[in-house]
């Protein structure tokens, strides 16, 4: 190969865009791809020595690895060793190499070493590790860096599987290579690091000397990478960095002798004490300590309590000694992660059963440091909007919760010891931490909260309720261990806060109020958030519950003689709602503490509403109002939920009227519902433009639907407010309509339901029809969008029992949308909202409709909409690019609708005939397949939904394939082939393979084979090599491997000669000549049973033979 020619091509490729045409650039790219196929190893090594062009060196560095792996069976062991050693020596001796050149050379060397680790072809491994040690201890920082990069390359190669490498390397090979490397190479590298670090730890000044500092840095990096190694059988693509790993340290049993030496652990603590003032070295050292804290597995089994207790004793003793004065700023996060890992990965009994003196010292340190960090983190988070310490605090809070839970799973030898642990860890320490947190959220003099730095950029993640959720959740768990004291403190705080607000509102001057009010509002906001996340909780589905510890506390009070009267409970809560400023002290001992707290919440909510009603809006903060609604929603839903009182009577001995739940009387229910309706709808009427506030208000109303739907639906106040409210003008119109429909459906009273239907839905539909009949105009079109969003809310509220009524209502709307699609075809917002409405109707409503006439009527309307969409929107999508998010959203909605239609037919009608739903999809595919080019498929959401739609069609309704034209079927197969390439992600690859299997099975059956055209059969033949290569390249991807085996079996069963012809082409390749005899025998065994179309047992047996085939041909077959 002429070096000047190669370097000339490289210069062309690297030239500025204005100097080189795209055709010339493509020609150069093809040249280098072709070069890698033709060039020999010796020629590569010559070019590596002679060229100075970085891009040529990069290409040659890559080529050496690819050629050696491709021609492994043809290359002599000595040539293999020369190849990787030359690469290493080239990197070690060359100065000022570009980083991408170094990376390519070291990756190729690592791949070669991995390929030869089992058959020994890459030579003596000890010689390799000596070479690495020489690189790491070299005085040149460049050589040291190259040594570390090579270790990183080795670790990456052995922790991952090669995909699309075309070297027929199997999953089993990767696992065996990984296991061999763990037992030998990885341990050897760690021992090398430990020896060097031990020598360094005995020096007085490591950081002050440039060489020892650099040497320490390199070997700490090696140790960090090894201790973060994934020792499980799972392989994954892992790129190493100095960031912390989430992998625990789980070495194999062969490392046990190494870990039994106490010096192994003490070394890292000793070394850290000497380098902790250097941030870079400190970070790497702390990462090593983190991994040691997570030690688990065969070398430290959970069942071996003695070894675990000894390990924990040694670790926390060293930890307390090293961090006696607390961690530095750059150690904080790592230190908290150490505590977190220690509690997560070690049996908590091994901590509880330490010597009393050490345990007390450790728990005392943990308490004091947690309180210190709480103060520090919250001051920074609120006052400076800095959340690094906040993240660390969340780690240590989570760890404390784990430790507290472990306390109750530990049995102690004596009651005195159990009491000692409770005093050291549980009741007062947790209360001190909780009080410290609360204190940091309240302004002076009640607390220490600094002036807040505003960081609200409109993003939900920046809201306090979301931003501090990682602290609220564990705090809620901690509160439960001292729930009585917390409820008492919280009731006092709320009562004092209300008194302060009342005083400001009645006696304070205007100037005094303007000064004090913002601080008070912030205090109340935080009290609401604390209360909403403490003694009540919310499930992932939105259902709320009272904490079990609150019930336990009530039971404890009950058995001490305190019994609460149901009538007093209702009287107290009624007073809080109707007379919130009245003295309520008389109820302090007559009402459950939980009800006392809830009453104080109701009192504040009532005062807040009164301020609204009196037009004193300047005294109310929308953010505080939102927090009130959040807290109120959770308490209302949790306390109104039905409780299995019989269970409590049977097992707890507590009568139902004494439980911490809402009073059950009808009189109180009416008072509560009237209060909530007035508060919620007053906000919607007066603050309709505050979208987030209105949403919280609507959610609060929904919290009572399950328990008080009939009361809400029959409330005169509801319709009184709705009459003064234009729902369609609200930003939250869809969600309000959803809430109102859910209320009507849950009311379980036909008269109430009909009343709501007539008063709410019918007027909206009439206004919508009127707007649709008017000529297009900006304001009219905007109204239409508003109405469509209201109807979308109706669809989202559909349930199985309400769907038939809602379908009749919504079908009339959809029928009107057919003409609307034509008259407003240029208005993308109208079109998008029509599609969203149809999507939700097909998702939530029509799925419950069993009437075939109604389903067919819907399909008829959908066909008209599809025709309109194709005609009017095709031109719009012909210029589609990856940046057109609005178009992508429309297209995703359209595809979702089609998927819903198919799913509905499959569930209700079965798949014996081509259903009307399938015909709608086929009709739509004519457009979709036309516009689905590479650009469109670069949109992940659109691509995945589209390929799933194809799978649903061929799987749920294979009979529909007969309805397709030859051209449409050909386009469908071409699209499936594109999906199998892997360029759109692994899930699409798997989905495409599954779709291909279904198509081939359909046309491979005797009944349908006559319908398969010559063109379609040729497409199947063209796809066979891709399927076979996908099978070989993805043995580590279970789903893709299984689907590719199934697709390959179906293709061979369809036409055996296609596969035989392809195999003969493989045998003719030069790289397969030497191993041809072995390969022929392996293929013969693979095909010993002739595949039959649709034979499931045969397919399973074929997959089993394929696994044996892969083991026999690994490293021998090349299909490049």
From TrEMBL:
Report the Gene3D superfamilies cross-referenced here: Leucine-rich Repeat Variant
Residue runs in coiled coils: none
| Record keywords | Cytoplasm, Nucleus, Protein transport, Transport
* UniProt-listed GO biological process terms: protein export from nucleus
Q: Name one GO molecular function term.
A: nuclear export signal receptor activity
> Which family is annotated?
Belongs to the exportin family.
Know the name of this protein? Exportin-4
Give the organism's phylogenetic lineage: Eukaryota, Metazoa, Ecdysozoa, Nematoda, Chromadorea
């Amino acid at each position: 190969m002429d070096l000047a020619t190669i370097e000339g091509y490289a210069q062309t490729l690297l030239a500025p865009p204005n100097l080189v045409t795209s055709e010339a650039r493509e020609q150069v790219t093809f040249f280098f791809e072709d070069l890698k196929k033709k060039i020999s190893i010796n020629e590569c090594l010559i070019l590596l020595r002679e060229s100075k062009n970085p891009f040529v060196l990069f290409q040659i560095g890559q080529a050496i690895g690819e050629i050696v792996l491709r021609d492994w069976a043809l290359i002599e062991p000595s040539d293999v060793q020369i190849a990787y050693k030359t690469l290493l020596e080239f990197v070690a001796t060359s100065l000022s190499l570009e980083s991408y050149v170094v990376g390519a050379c070291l990756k190729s060397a690592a791949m070669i070493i991995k390929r030869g680790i089992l058959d020994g072809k890459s030579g003596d491994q000890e010689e390799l590790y000596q070479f690495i040690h020489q690189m790491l201890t070299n005085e040149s920082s460049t050589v040291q860096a190259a040594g570390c990069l090579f270790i990183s390359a080795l670790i990456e190669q052995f922790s991952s599987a090669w995909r699309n490498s075309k070297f027929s390397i199997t999953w089993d090979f990767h696992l065996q290579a990984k296991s061999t490397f763990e037992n030998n190479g990885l341990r050897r590298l760690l021992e090398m690091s430990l020896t060097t670090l031990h020598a360094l730890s005995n020096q007085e000044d490591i950081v002050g000397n440039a060489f020892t500092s650099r040497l320490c840095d390199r070997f700490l990096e090696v140790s960090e990478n090894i201790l973060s190694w994934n020792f499980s059988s799972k392989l994954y693509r892992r790129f190493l960095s100095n960031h912390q790993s989430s992998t625990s340290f789980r070495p194999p049993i062969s490392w046990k002798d190494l870990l039994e030496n106490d010096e192994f652990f003490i070394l890292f603590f000793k070394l850290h004490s000497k380098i902790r003032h250097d941030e870079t070295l400190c970070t790497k050292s702390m990462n090593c300590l983190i991994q040691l804290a997570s030690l688990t597995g065969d070398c430290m089994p959970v069942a071996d309590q003695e070894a675990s207790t000894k390990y924990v004793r040694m670790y926390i003793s060293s930890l307390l000694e090293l961090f006696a004065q607390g961690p530095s700023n750059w150690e904080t996060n790592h230190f908290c992660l150490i505590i977190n890992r220690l509690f997560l990965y070690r049996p908590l009994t091994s901590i509880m059963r330490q010597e009393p003196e050490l345990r007390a010292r450790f728990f005392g340190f943990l308490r004091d440091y947690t309180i210190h960090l709480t103060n520090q983190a919250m001051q920074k988070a609120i006052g400076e909007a800095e959340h690094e310490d906040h993240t660390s605090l969340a780690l240590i809070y989570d760890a404390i919760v784990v430790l507290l839970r472990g306390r109750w799973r530990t049995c102690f030898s004596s009651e005195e010891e159990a009491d000692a642990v409770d005093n050291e860890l549980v009741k007062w320490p947790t209360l001190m931490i909780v009080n410290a947190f609360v204190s940091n959220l309240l302004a002076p003099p009640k607390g220490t909260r600094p002036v807040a730095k505003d960081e609200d950029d409109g993003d939900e993640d920046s809201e306090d309720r979301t931003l501090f959720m990682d602290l609220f959740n564990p705090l809620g768990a901690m509160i439960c261990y001292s729930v009585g004291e917390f409820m008492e403190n919280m009731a006092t705080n709320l009562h004092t806060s209300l008194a302060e607000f009342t005083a400001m509102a009645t006696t304070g001057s205007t100037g005094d109020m303007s000064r004090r009010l913002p601080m008070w509002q912030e205090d109340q906001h935080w009290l609401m958030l604390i209360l909403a996340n403490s003694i009540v909780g919310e499930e992932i589905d939105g259902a709320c519950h009272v904490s079990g510890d609150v019930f336990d506390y009530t039971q404890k009070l009950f058995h001490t003689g305190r019994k609460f009267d149901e009538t007093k409970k209702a009287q107290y809560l009624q007073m809080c709602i109707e007379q919130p400023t009245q003295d309520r002290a008389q109820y302090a001992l007559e009402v459950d503490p939980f009800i006392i707290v809830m009453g104080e919440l109701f009192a504040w909510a009532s005062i807040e509403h009164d301020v609204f009603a009196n037009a004193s809006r300047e005294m109310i903060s929308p953010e505080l109002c939102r927090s009130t609604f959040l807290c109120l929603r959770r308490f209302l839903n949790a306390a109104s939920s039905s409780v299995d009182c019989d269970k409590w009577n049977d097992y707890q001995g507590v009568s139902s009227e004494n439980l911490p739940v809402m009073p059950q009387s009808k009189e109180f229910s009416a008072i509560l519902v009237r209060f909530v309706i007035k508060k919620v709808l007053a906000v919607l009427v007066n603050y309709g433009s505050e979208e987030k506030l209105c949403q919280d208000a609507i959610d609060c109303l929904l919290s009572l639907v399950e328990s008080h739907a009939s009361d809400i639906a029959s409330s005169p106040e509801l319709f009184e407010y709705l009459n003064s409210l234009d729902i369609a003008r609200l930003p939250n119109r869809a969600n309000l309509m959803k809430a109102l429909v859910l209320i009507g459906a849950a009311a379980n009273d036909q008269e109430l339901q009909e009343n709501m239907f007539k008063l709410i839905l019918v007027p909206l539909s009439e206004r919508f029809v009127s707007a649709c009949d008017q000529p297009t105009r900006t304001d009219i079109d905007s109204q239409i969008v508003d109405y469509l969003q209201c109807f979308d809310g109706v669809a989202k509220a559909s349930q199985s029992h309400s769907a038939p009524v809602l379908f009749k209502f919504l079908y009339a709307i959809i029928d009107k949308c057919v003409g609307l699609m034509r008259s407003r075809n240029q208005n993308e917002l109208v079109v998008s909202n029509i599609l969203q409405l149809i999507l939700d109707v097909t998702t939530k409503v029509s799925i419950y409709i069993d009437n075939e006439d109604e389903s067919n009527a819907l399909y008829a309307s959908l066909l008209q909409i599809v025709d309109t969409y194709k005609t009017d929107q095709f031109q719009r999508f012909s210029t589609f690019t990856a940046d057109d998010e609005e178009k992508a959203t429309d297209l995703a909605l359209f595809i979702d609708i089609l998927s819903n239609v198919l799913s509905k037919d499959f569930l209700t009608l079965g798949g014996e005939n081509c259903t009307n739903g399938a015909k709608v999809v086929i009709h739509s595919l004519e457009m979709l397949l036309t516009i689905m080019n590479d650009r469109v498929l670069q949109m992940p959401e659109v691509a995945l939904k589209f390929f799933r739609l194809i799978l649903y069609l061929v799987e749920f309704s294979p009979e529909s394939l007969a309805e397709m034209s030859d051209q449409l079927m050909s386009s469908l197969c071409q699209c499936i082939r594109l999906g199998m390439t892997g360029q759109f992600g692994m899930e699409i690859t798997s989905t495409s393979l599954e779709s291909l299997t279904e198509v081939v099975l359909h046309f491979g059956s005797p009944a349908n084979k006559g319908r398969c055209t010559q063109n379609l059969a040729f497409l199947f033949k063209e796809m066979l090599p891709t399927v076979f290569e996908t099978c070989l390249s993805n043995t580590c991807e279970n789903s893709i491997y299984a689907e590719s085996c199934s697709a390959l079996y179906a293709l061979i069963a369809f036409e055996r000669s296609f596969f035989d012809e392809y195999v003969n082409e493989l045998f003719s390749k030069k790289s397969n000549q030497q191993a041809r005899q072995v390969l022929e025998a392996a293929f013969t065994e693979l095909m010993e049973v002739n595949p039959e179309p649709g034979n499931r047992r045969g397919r399973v047996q074929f997959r089993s033979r394929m696994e044996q085939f892969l083991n026999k041909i690994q490293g021998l077959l090349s299909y490049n």
